[in-house]
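In response to reviewer comment 3 from the previous cycle, which asked for concrete evidence that the modeling workflow produces usable outputs, we include below a single protein chain processed end to end. The sequence was submitted unchanged, and the resulting structure tokens are shown without manual editing.
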Amino acid sequence: MSDAHAFYALVWVNLLGIAGIVVWHLQGRSRPTARLVVQIIFFAGMTAVLAFGEIRPYQIGTAEPVEGLHLFKIAARLLWWIHLAWAAIGFVRIYLVLDGRPREARLLQDLIVAAVYLGVTLSIVGFVFGAPVGTLVATSGVVAIILGLALQNMLADLFSGVALTLGRPFAIGDWIQLGDGTEGRVVENNWRSTQILTPAHNVVVVPNSALAKAGLTNLTRPDETHMIALVVRIAAPHPPHVVASAMTAALRSCGHVVQDPAPIVALKAIDAIAIEAELQFRVNGPANRTPARNEVIGAVHRQCEASGLAFAPPPQSYLWAPEADSRSLASAAQPTSLSNSPETRKADRASA
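The workflow returned the following structure tokens.
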């Protein structure tokens, strides 16, 4: 092909490349699909013109005298590689959005985009300007080793963040609990750390390397309902089925308690002093634990008063009690209706 045809082809490639950049910027970031369509159209047009002009952008550049045709050729190949990078990045961003990835996938996007830009930059250096890419890569490898040793803690956080992003043990907005007892809602996850908003309204910043090693419990999955267990001790003379019915009625009267699945009253133990019942109920989320527990305690107290049930003393109050005080502890655990009966008062006077 004559130099005139090659020159016209290079001119058209440069015009298409510049026009594609202008239109790409005019689309704005709010229209990623339209941007991708524009990138594909202009990239396809530039590729067709280069093929018509028998110009291969992936051919290693040769040392040619600096003149108009050579400068147009360098600019055309440079614009072609830039549009190739933008088209590939557009595919990556659209794929990650259509795949329904969470907001943490932005970290993965940034890594892929950085890899695409690095590859295109090396291609431009090698194919367009004819520089020795092998020597450049070897030199950059030595520099990378030095930087890796100096920034090993930061790199550990970075790769741990990548592992957390790929594993997806939590998402922004999830309520998590760490092995050291720290818990709260995840408000941000970036390259270096994860930020957790605690119930005390403090933000705890956890490095990704420490988070990847720590035991983690996600309280939001499979749903955010959270189970609470509350132990109640009722005096032993009361029938167990009466205790279970009263506790069930108390749980059903609470608005903070989830009724589906229904709360459970488990009778755990019985002795001469008390019947121990464990109230197992769910709340809508970990943040509702304190209001729900307060409401359940109030409901249990009201239900015991209405049913004539008496609370039993805690085990530690009579575990090491002397024998002389054992009868007083046993009588303290009796319901009010029994302790005030004439038979009880006569027995007390006889014992005195």
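The CA atoms of residues 145 and 151 lie 10 Å apart. We consider this sufficient to address the reviewer's concern, and the full set will be provided in the supplementary archive.
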